[in-house]
Amino acid sequence: MDDLVLLHAFPLDARMWDVPGALTPSLRGSGEPDLGAVASQVLALLDERGLDRVLLGGCSMGGYVAMALVRRAPERVKGLIFVDTKHTADAPEAVETRLAMADRVEREGVGEWLVEATLPNLLGPGASDTARASVRTMVLEQRAEDVAWWQRAMAKRPDSTDVLETVDVPSLVLVGEHDKITPPDVAAKLAVTLRHATSERIEDAGHLPPVERPDEFRARLERWRTQVGL
């Protein structure tokens, strides 16, 4: 899987992935908040590793970064994996919520309040204690400056419909059955936007199937790769 790149969700890091052999960078904010800047970081990493074309995947925020990368360098991508993410921009109320969290984390730092604000929407009702403990740890160990930066960058991300409609590579769209943030109907709209998409629902999972049901996630990924020859 040395050509597989997976980008993590907010407010987590590379530890959310349990996919041996995949390149899973922990994203960092720098400069003016813009997901295009993170996409540039990923492209620089691909150059460093000598990877010309990759199978690029992202969960939630990672999906937004993947879309930003496709906008900048579509020739670097031979396939796409979108996990519990969406291609549309945020509604005004969602933007306000993101900016409010960014302001609060700068004032108060990362703490239990951030776990309480995010974890209920990240995990499904059947998530194991192990999954809950893992997500809690990752949230608490993020840098406040990154959390604020990510929220401000996501708040101003553009609609990516125009980009995805032109992508001519195989795509896999996965969504947790109980995802509250980007539910199955949102995933269905994303799949319709893509030219060559396979869309699947992962039962008994919320917004983070790779954490909640890692074995099932890997199995779906491998089956799709075999089907499309990637």
Report on this structure.
Keywords: Hydrolase. InterPro entries: AB_hydrolase_1 (IPR000073), AB_hydrolase_fold (IPR029058), AB_hydrolase_sf (IPR050266). With 230 residues, this protein is of the alpha/beta class. The chain has one domain (4-228): 3-Layer(aba) Sandwich (Rossmann fold). It contains ten helices and five strands. The protein has helices at residues 35-49, 61-72, 92-108, 112-122, 129-140, 144-155, 161-164, 184-193, 209-212, 214-228, and strands at residues 4-7, 54-59, 77-83, 170-176, 196-202. The radius of gyration is 16 Å and the shape is globular. The mean pLDDT is 96.
What is the strand arrangement across the widest sheet?
A: 1-2-3-4-5
Main β-sheet: number of strands, strand sense, barrel status?
5 strands, parallel
Per CATH, what is the topology? Rossmann fold
Oligomer: single chain
Structural class: alpha/beta
Fraction in helix: 40-55%
* Rg over CA atoms: 16 Å
Beta percentage is: 5-15%
Give the name of the CATH superfamily. Answer: Alpha/Beta hydrolase fold, catalytic domain
Name the CATH class: Alpha Beta
Tally of separate domains: 1
**Overall pLDDT confidence:** 96
Instruction: Give start-end ranges of low-pLDDT stretches.
Output: none
Order of helices and strands: EHEHEHHHHHEHEHH
Number of strands: 5
Describe the global form.
globular
Query: Helix count, per DSSP?
Result: 10
